[in-house]
Each structure stands twice: as structure tokens, then as C-alpha cells.
Amino acid sequence: MGKLLEAKNLSIALPEDGGQVILTEGISFDIQKGEVYSLVGESGCGKTITALSLLNVLPTANASMLTGEVLFNDQDLLKLPEKDLCKIRGKDIAVIFQEPSSAMNPLMKVRAQLEECYLLHQLEVNHEAIDLMLKEVGFADPERVLNSYPHELSGGMLQRVMIAMALLLKPKLIIADEPTTALDVTIQAQIMDLLDRLRREHDVSILLITHNLNLVAQYSDRVAVMYAGRMVEEAGVEEFFAKPCHPYSKGLLRALPKMGSAVSTLEPIQGQVPLPKNFVPSCRFADRCSQVVESQCCSAPIAFKEVGPQHKVACVLEQK
Ligand code: SF4
After folding, report:
1. What is the separation of C-alpha 159 from the centre of its chain, rounded to a whole number of angstroms?
2. What's the CA gap between 133 and 138, in Å, rounded?
3. Is the CB of 244 under 6 A from ligand 1?
4. Which of 74, 193, 214, 288 gives 271 a disulfide partner, CB atoms 3.0 to 4.6 angstroms apart?
5. What does the pLDDT read at residue 263?
6. Is there an atom of ligand 1 within 6 Å of 247 CB?
7. Cβ(292) to ligand 1 under 6 A?
8. At 63, is the pLDDT very low, low, confident or very high (cuts 50, 70, 90)?
9. Among 284, 302, 312, 313, which is best to mutate for testing ligand 1, by the most ligand atoms less than 8 A from CB?
10. What per-residue confidence (pLDDT) applies to 267?
11. Residue 101 has pLDDT above 90, yes or no
12. Does some domain include residue 28?
């Protein structure tokens, strides 16, 4: 495989009241060529902001403080001048957003939006490639799609257009931020199967941001669990589902509905993810954890330690 991208010690903070509020800290991971690497966790854990930070497109770019390194093609993306980073965004690294209807321009026909991918990178528009790509993502009549405005297409069709747009310039990495959240279950499966097939055929890596562990089990090679701005577990996908170690990961898996199970109620993780302004230096899951040992869990930061091949956990229970 070989490493395609490496994020090192990424931290994001926002200035507030003369101080700063930490949103994520010490996030490190790598994505191998051709692999699907998933980031999971509840809403508010920092998954999307971590993904956006890779391309330095944070929602409040002027105010946010981003530190760390993002190594891609032997260069640190966070140190690149904006004009050089623009050449990578949408070309070498493309993004598929969770809500295609709001990611596309409602005033432009699909044709113009696909052509824009070339024009923004000062490339000649390749109409044949656009046609072929639309066929690849499952449109039998590309001409009809090209002549449509976004509101004339269904959510599933729009997500296919987004995938075509992402793949058009042959990126090496696609950041797929909850690509199926806005879709019904049948279309979800079609879109994920399509992404998976295209990944193999085009040799693309995917960073999949999701809270859907079933998608992770089916499509990922490795998975990292985020909680309150930190990574708490990272493992190969088979190892993760067979032997999850962190109490939060175990809770997420217990909360999944099980096919054929006689259990009539799901088992939620009690409590909520803390707000960033309430983040503590020690374990942030402590107030929801049934195995908390106050003296060990609530006094100092917990190291993110290797507990097996390609398996890391941040929990005192795994550090004896
Ligand atoms: S460090 Fe302590 S509180 Fe945190 S997850 Fe592990 S056992 Fe629970």
C-alpha cells in the first residue's frame, strides 16, 4: 500500500474571551494508498472539523488556530500558500459533502458545475470524460442530468453527481463526510457500493466520516473513534469489531440494533459529549464511563497507547 497522507498532532482551537477553546487536540493518523479509513463518533466529537482541517478549510478559517502537520506528497499542506493549496483542493484531494443539495449551487445547471471543476484548475473541459463519469456513477442519460438544475434531481441523484464531480479530476484521496446521511437506506447502500467500486477501479483512498458503524464494518479497512476532540481508539476494522477496547467504543457497539435480537430496547450511552469549553485534560469520557476509577482517570491526560498490532487505545484499563 504505502502512506498517502499523514496527519500529525493536529489541534484546533478557537479564541474566546481572551483565551481559547480547544476543539480537537493531538489528532494523528495516516491514510494508506487505496484504503478506506473511517472516523467515527457522536456528533460534536470533532470528526468533520478534523477532516476539513486537512485542507485548511475550517468554517471559521480566520479565527481558528490550527497546529500540527498534514503531510501529503512530501509537503505539509498546512504550510502551503493558499494558491498552492487551491491546486490540491478538488484535484488531488476531493470532498463529498453530506448534504449534496446544499453543497451544489442551486442557480447553476449540473453541466456548468461539472465544467467548473476543470476551469478552477485552469484545465480544458473534457466533455467526453464528464459524460463517461456520469455513466460510471449510474446515469443512463447523462445529457438529461447535465441539463438539470440541482432541485430537479433527487437526493440520491445529486449524491451521484457529487461523486462524479469528486472523481472527475482523478483525485488520490476523497474525503467523504457522511456521504449517505441524507439518503434513505436503499439509496445509502447503492451509493456506498458505488463509492467502493470506484475506489477499487480508480485506486483512490477514502477518508470516511460517519456515525454509522454498519457502514464502517462493511466498507472500511481501519477505523478511528473520536470522543470530545480526541482519538480514543484506532484499529483494523476486523479487530475493532471483534475486540473493541475503549469503554466508549464498546458503548457505541452495544447501542447498535442487532438483526434477529429479541431485545426490545436499545442500550444507549447515558449522558452527552461535553461542550468544548468544558473539556478537561484527563479522560473526557469519565462522567459517562461505568468503569471510571476517579484516582486514575480524572487526574491527568491518558496516553494513546499501542495495545496490539495497529491497535491503539486511550484508556487506563489498557495501560497496565
Ligand atoms: S480512562 Fe477511565 S474513565 Fe476513561 S474510558 Fe478508561 S476507564 Fe473510563
Report:
1. 16
2. 9
3. no
4. 288
5. 64
6. yes
7. yes
8. low
9. 302
10. 81
11. no
12. yes
Paired with 223 in beta bridges are 38, 235
Q: How far is the CA of 80 from the centre of ligand 1 (A)?
A: 38
Amino acid 33: pLDDT? 93
Q: At residue 123, does pLDDT exceed 90? A: yes
- Phi and psi at residue 97, to the nearest 5°: -90, 160
State whether the Cα torsion 132-135-137-141 is positive or negative.
positive
- Is residue 59's pLDDT more than 60? yes
**Cα separation of 320 and 315, whole Å?**
10
Amino acid identity for residue 294 in this structure: E
CA atoms within 13 A on the CB side of 225: 28
Q: How many domains does the chain have?
A: 2
pLDDT band at 184 (very low <50, low <70, confident <90, very high): confident
CA of 233 to the centre of ligand 1 (A): 12
User: DSSP class of residue 262?
Assistant: -
- Given pLDDT bands bounded at 50, 70 and 90, which one contains residue 155? confident
Q: What separation in Å is there between the alpha carbon of 235 and the centre of ligand 1?
A: 18
Within a domain: residue 300? Answer: no
Task: Write the DSSP assignment of 21-45 as a string of letters.
Answer: EEEEEEEEEEEETT-EEEEE-STTS
pLDDT above 70: residue 234: yes
143 occurs within a structural domain: yes
Give the length of the chain. 320
109 found inside a domain:
yes
Same domain as 79, residue 24: yes
> Do residues 87 and 156 share a domain?
no
283 lines ligand 1 (CB under 6 A): yes
Question: Which has more confidence, 114 or 18?
Answer: 114
Q: What is the pLDDT of residue 264?
A: 65
From 151, 170, 189, give the residue that closes a domain. 170
Q: Where in the sequence is the domain holding 148, given as residue range(s)?
A: 101-170
Residue ending a domain, choose from 126, 150, 170: 170
Write the residue with the smallest CA distance to atom 1 of ligand 1. 315
